[in-house]
Task: structure prediction
Amino acid sequence: MSENNDQKFVYDFTEGNRDLKDLLGGKGANLAEMTNLGLPVPPGFTITTEACKVYLESGSEPVELRDEVSAHLDALEQQMGKKLGQADDPLLVSVRSGAKFSMPGMMDTVLNIGLSDESVVGLARQADNERFAWDSYRRLIQMFGKTVLGVEGELFEDALDEAKTAKKVASDTDLDAADLKKVVKHFKKIVKAETGRDFPQDPREQMDLAIEAVFNSWNTDRAKLYRRQERIPGDLGTAVNVCSMVFGNLGPDSGTGVAFTRDPASGHAGVYGDYLQNAQGEDVVAGIRNTVPLADLESIDKTSYDQLMHIMNTLETHYKDLCDIEFTIERGQLWMLQTRVGKRTAGAAFRIATQLVDQGLIDEAEALQRVTGAQLAQLMFPKFDEDAKVDQIGRGIAASPGAAVGKAVFDSYTAVKWSRSGEKVILIRRETNPDDLDGMIAAEGILTSRGGKTSHAAVVARGMGKTCVCGAEELEVDTKRRRMTTSDGQVVEEGDVVSIDGSTGKVYLGEVPVVPSPVVEYFEGRMHAGADDADELVAAVHRIMAYADRVRRLRVRANADNAEDANRARRFGAQGIGLCRTEHMFLGERRQFVERLILADTDVERDNALEALLPLQKTDFVELFEAMDGLPVTVRLLDPPLHEFLPDITELSVRVALAESRKEPHENDLRLLQAVHRLHEQNPMLGLRGVRLGLVIPGLFTMQVRAIAEAAAQRIDAKGDPRVEIMIPLVGTVQELEIVREEAEQVIAEVQARTGVELKLALGTMIELPRAAVTAGQIAEAAEFFSFGTNDLTQTVWGFSRDDVEASFFTAYLEKGIFGVSPFETIDKDGVGALVRSAVQAGRATRPDIKLGVCGEHGGDPESVHFFHEVGLDYVSCSPFRIPVARLEAGRAAAESKGSDSR
Result:
């Protein structure tokens, strides 16, 4: 790549546009776009992601890069009329990361590059502000030392705290120029002690080292963890933006802020954001100083405020979406430092999408693409019961909604450790930083005493869908003593349970009970769209769901085993049942009949046991068919191994031993124990189960088929419309299916002749073994439908047991990047997916009208639904509560493919 002399690695802000995100990263592309729009953007240039890829692959920058950077730096210096780091009036630049997808706080940035012992004096003289110059210099050494030279950040923070303590002040802004000169001297000593070298005084060396550091930050642990969490590919690389500095820390007529064109928490229109006078950008995002609301800027600097409002409207109209904006005001001059399509909460996503449709900025198809199934799932989480008795101990800023309850922990390590032990935790910090990411992921929610809606904690939490309350100033967080103190002196120790409400910002001591979300109540039919805030959200969800249902091709069924689940599924929009697991009907009191079946020594005993089960099964099916009247119901014949219906071998052995020692009767337990030993298998999931049971135990499957057929006949007699499909599990060869099919057809014919009711029962199979997928063309000769059992198919393709491996080595595989996500959560497209695709093609080649569906857990996974749409399945089936998510994603998949076709 680096040998290609035609490769261009550096672009001026005037050369790019927002469509070049792959090359320029999101930040660089949007800086170019704002420049093209004529907005006030400080001049600069972008080093492409291609340069980063070369660096990461080879360990060194492309040979052409230095010359290209020099050429663009020369042009920037000519434009600005000053040179980088010159003594009298230095040009200073920032070096900032900028990947294609937003990764807030995960990669590195260095501001004020070009300052040195010599140029800081010139900057002070030119700005007529000595304090500003030395404050900027200490920031450079602190950021450069931590980011580029790898010095522990706490060393600088402790030194700064010492300076404030010595002067008896609480804020950095209370330190004067003389104080800051001492801080700079101390910082330089820290750099020398920790690195063995002096802080670099050559401005070009500073810039080159910073560029290299940004490249390296792509592969830091926190960046890789964030990419895994957000499913961002690891081979994209980051761009680097070199931008001329503008200063918000020049005094009270300067400042910096972050703004949103709409509220990212609710989606409501208005003035949202944070502003901080006499500060640089990291002060806002880091949350180390509490900001004022953006609306206050109107009274502080009305000219800049009015200009910002106009620019925000321009950007939202141009991008046709919520925009997240970073800006700086330098002595009354407004500068735009960044814009991007802003992260938002799930509720805001739905509201904004419908608002933009109403404004005519986007159409319904685009609105559907602006929301996700994951966001819809978040909206279905419970919320706190407003009528419950609570102990409110504080209130902060509602940064990311949700109701989170857990034990208080005060560092990320503890959050991860306790979470892995099964504890639910709330991570409490003064403010979070990128190093807290693993703890934020592990926690149920995040609580900080500093920062606002644009702080690191808020932005990252919204992106992850985590509940977050920020800026709870009345709560004093002491991370060293692992405690939090309320304004009235109440102490919350580590391990105490707290509850945080990300929708109101309220913080409670103890566990607050939760109630269903209004979105779930809407799907249950208990709530309708109205005027208040909850109803407004429901109305937005309703509109988008209605459009998704109109355009989707995939039908959505439910995995349901009884009438109660079936009725709930139908309310949630299920178009049938894709999986009824009959083994669930054999539990509880009915287990005794299965035990009788297993212990039967003669044909008569076995037939009697089956005869006793028949009416019970029939009643279950009648109720199920009635609940799903007019919609298809796929009934899977008994699947698990019989030992699952017997008592635990250890418990049974103890019972037998005790009975023998007491000389008590134990004949039945002894027979059960013998049966357990007889049925014991080293790997029961690959043993005597599914179709193999039906072939080995005479009458088992025919009893179930008879119950199904008689139930269907009864419903037809009652003027019902049962649409029944009988599914044979674990088929590996067409001969197995042919034998069971022949027996089933005989039973159906008998029931039909006896009742005088015509029965049309489809017979098909689950495709859950690799051999079944490979021979799907042959199996389709005897099957009217396939339903892919992707849980078992994933186990058998990968060769591991879900119950064992998820607890043993999946965490390591995810951390090492072997898995981007568990293959049980999202379908493995290259392995399992390839078998599904080939089986679909082979099945349809044999039987063009074959019905194809999926009933594994993947049926409700958003990403997997898109895959099933692509390969041409007819339906997905999932648990009742995931039906709305599957409906939405099926609509998104259809709209997405239609858009691709039109392009």
Summary: Residues 625 and 722 are 6 Å apart (CA to CA). The mean pLDDT is 90. The longest helix spans residues 603-627.
